[in-house]
Amino acid sequence: MDRTPYWLCVDGEWVRQQDALTVQNRAFLYGDGVFETMRTFGEDIVFVETHFERLTNSLALLDIPLHADLQADGLRKLAARFIHKNKWYKGARLRLTVYRVGAGRYTPQSNESGFLLDGEPFDNEPFYPFVGTGKLLTAFSEMKKPLNKLASLKTTSSIFYVLAGKHAKTQGFDDCFIMNERDEIIETVNSNVFLVAGNQVIAPGTSNGALNGTMRKQVLNLLNDTNYNITERGINADDLQKADEVLLTNAVQGINWVKGYKERRYYHRFGAELSEKLNLKIVNRQF
Question: Has UniProt tagged this entry with the keyword Lyase (predicted)?
Answer without folding.
Answer: yes
